[in-house]
Amino acid sequence: MKELTRAEEEIMQVLWQLESAFVKEIIEHLPEPKPAYNTVSTIVRILQQKGFVGHEAHGKSHKYSPLITKETYTKTFMKGFVKKYFSGSYKQMVSFFTQEENLSVNELEQLLDQLKKKSS
Predict the structure, then answer these.
(1) DNA-binding: present as a keyword of the record (predicted)?
(2) Running DSSP on this structure, what letter comes out for residue 1?
């Protein structure tokens, strides 16, 4: 699974929230300044080529829906992120964020528990 660009992820966030939508509806849920219709349409087609989005024809327009769940993408992305930046070690990642964010022992334990559940 390929990593999404920032623009692609923004559109996927809307599709995950709405579950299915026309390009016009996607635009309505994007923050200001709103991108052009053609821009969003192009990004949705790219997402379709990447296998993230499917469509259903409604006359001349298409209603798009995610083919990949947010959870599946997040899990895959996090594994790649940890591998790329922390040599595949969740402990190194947690250690880094503990130092940066001054997490308490309790918060650290909760974070480790969540990571273990999600990587299973």
Answers:
(1) yes
(2) -
- Which residues, in sequence order, are bridge partners of residue 21? 64
Answer left, alpha or beta for residue 63, where phi above 0 means left and psi between -120 and 50 means alpha: beta
Residue-level length of the chain: 120
- pLDDT digit string, tens, across residues 27-80: 999 999 999 999 999 999 999 999 999 999 999 999 999 999 999 998 888 888
Q: How many CA atoms lie within 13 A of 108 on its CB side?
A: 16
CATH fold for the domain made of 6-66: Arc Repressor Mutant, subunit A (1.10.10)
Where in the chain are the domains?
A: 6-66, 70-119
Residue 86 tokens read as 């922390």
CA atoms within 13 Å, Cβ hemisphere of 10: 15
Lowest-pLDDT choice from 33-37, 54-58, 95-99, 116-120: 116-120
